[in-house]
Amino acid sequence: MTNRRLTVAGRVALLIRAGLIAGLVITGLSYPFAALAGMGVKAGAEALENMPEQLTELPPAQTTYVYAGDGKTLLTMFYEEHRKHVALKDMSPYVIKAIVASEDARFYEHNGVDAKGVARAFVANQKAGGVSQGASTLTMQYVRMALRDSARTPREALEATEQTAARKLREMRLAIEVEQRLSKEEILERYLNAAYYGHRAYGIFAASQIFFSKAPRDLTLTEAALIAGLVKAPSAYDPATKNQKAALERRNYVIDQMLEMNAITAEQAGSAKKSKIRLKLSTPPNGCISVSPRHNDWGFFCDYFKSWWREQPAFGRTPLEREENLRRGGYRVVTSIDPRIQRYGLRHVLEKERRSSAIAHGQVVVQPGTGRVISMAVNRTYSLDQEKNGRHSDWRQDDDVKGNYPNTVNPLLGGGDMAGYQAGSTFKIFTMLAALEADLPLSTSFYSPQRFVSRYITAPGPATCGIYWCPKNSSESMTGTQNMWTGFGKSVNTYFVQLEQRVGAEKAVRMAERLGLRWRTDIDRKLATKDHASGWGAFTLGVSDATPVEMANVFATLAAEGKYCEPLPVLSIRNPDGSHALYENRLIAAPRCHQEIKVNVARAATDAARCVTGYGAARGSCGGWGTSSMVYGTLGRPVAGKSGTTDGNKTAWFSGYTPQLAASAFVADPDNPEHLVGSGRSTMSKYTVAQTLRDALEGKPTENFKPPSDKYVW
Prior knowledge:
Layout: H1 2-17, E1 24-26, E2 29-31, H2 41-49, E3 64-67, E4 74-78, H3 93-103, H4 115-128, H5 138-149, H6 154-161, H7 165-181, H8 184-194, H9 204-212, H10 221-230, H11 245-260, H12 266-274, H13 298-310, H14 319-328, E5 332-335, H15 339-352, E6 360-366, E7 373-378, E8 381-382, E9 407-408, E10 421-422, H16 428-437, E11 446-448, E12 464-465, E13 468-469, E14 480-482, H17 484-489, H18 493-503, H19 505-514, H20 522-527, E15 545-546, H21 548-559, E16 563-565, E17 570-574, E18 582-583, E19 586-587, E20 593-595, H22 599-613, H23 630-635, E21 640-645, E22 652-657, E23 662-668, H24 684-696
Parallel strand pairs: 3-5, 8-9
Antiparallel strand pairs: 1-2, 3-4, 5-17, 6-7, 6-23, 10-15, 11-14, 12-13, 16-20, 18-19, 21-22, 22-23
Helix pairs in contact: 1-2, 1-7, 3-10, 3-11, 5-6, 5-7, 5-8, 10-11, 11-12, 15-24, 16-18, 16-19, 16-22
């Protein structure tokens, strides 16, 4: 190591002592290098000896590309600096010739520091009385870029770019070291991929895309010369401004330099200089807000993906660090969103509720057995611009307070901090699963009156009888003896309160947690605790909030016969080198599944859920009708599910599933939970789910549910 240090440091020191490096441009002044801010030649050489020998290079930030499930349709990109590494062989030859001609004509002759160039710059600057020429070689510039990109603190970033003699010395020494371990071609490739060209374009790939909407391999002579000319001063020579005079002069200067180096012919140079600047500008999308207008509805899915990414420990220690990694990591992400099914889902949502309505109607579709979220549609525009939004639906708000419609970026379908919406009777599924798991069969019967005096103590209110909670059914016709088939199919409240009492409310709450529900409001978190869950009688009627993603995934678990999979918005994630992203030796994008519920428990719940849709149970009688018989009539293949409304029709839900797909739709006012959706919207979610599943499964083979074993029937 000592001999190598003498080799690298000594070569610069010898240049100093020999007077070949005559001066440096420092903060606008010509300054004798040997003096080094008051130090003599010996001191300068000693300072050089004490500088770091090796250039520490961290991979520069690269753009992350996010695609739809087809792997071709770009959803958006994430970046701090738009950048993608391109091999030298994939660049136009004109790019390489132009950058050498404009920045370092003696690049192939020097060893990192061009002593003649430094001397020439010193003389020129002395005559000019200021800065007229620089002396940095391409290699020295690359060193500066590498130090900038590898900076871990603001101080390190400043030291990499500040105009001081110490910084220049450091660059020179490291440039010589770089030249000893990298070929000229490798240095050029790294330089071209690190240089800044303006308009947030770092590297030749981004510059080609932003200024000419093409790949670097396709750049012409004039285009390559213009881009190469930007490196010196991207703002001063910006060709996208109204006055292109400076950019044209700079481009033509580069062309002249290319001719002087014999990189092009005189005929080529003459023709190129006569050409006008013709740009084809493009602004690369950045983040979810930049999703293409053609696919604006994908913005809500993109936001869900981003929330998911922030929760993954594979990408950093904190959510902020993970998001930074998303913007710098250069990943290629293929998401789970299916453009075809998304198109169907959005169509059926908008057919029923226009975007300009204060009432939100949305739907999520999940793939059973993988947990992959393949569609997220809602009657909103994903946008920050609320200038033309309607008035807030809460009359208590000031007149100038706008609502979140039609434009919003709120996570209406899941992810983020929104609690969701009261899911009503869909929560009866948790009580039924807890009962089946406790070996209570589908035939378990209770006489279910119109109003039932429960054992749960509650505060005084309209549904109380003294100190007790007294729920009632929505219809007198539900009075009578019910079992799980009829109680679930007809959504008999007083049956399920008795079933919940039999099995224990806490078990129903824990079942919901096991199937992925999170408690996001203070009251839900309190009631779900061990001290309160056993007395949470109203839980079975869906007084807690849930998101469409959560509920769709609950019923996807039943479709997968009890196999629970975490909701997953990705199909694959690849590193910049093309390898799959791993965490603890596991693919990050792989489904995360386990058998949460016994197979026959899930089959039994499905048998009862078939009664809801009009499809009919395999092992029992549905009692003649179900709350959502139009679902099977619309879909025309085996289907199960559960509807849910809350008091006064504040929300209206339906969650349905086939063996292949599960979906959950809701109708609610996210701005004002007290705003009633009205009885006219009570069937909206049912039809949306049925129609979406019908279109999504068109041409697919019909699959049947498997009936449960006798143990869970009688």
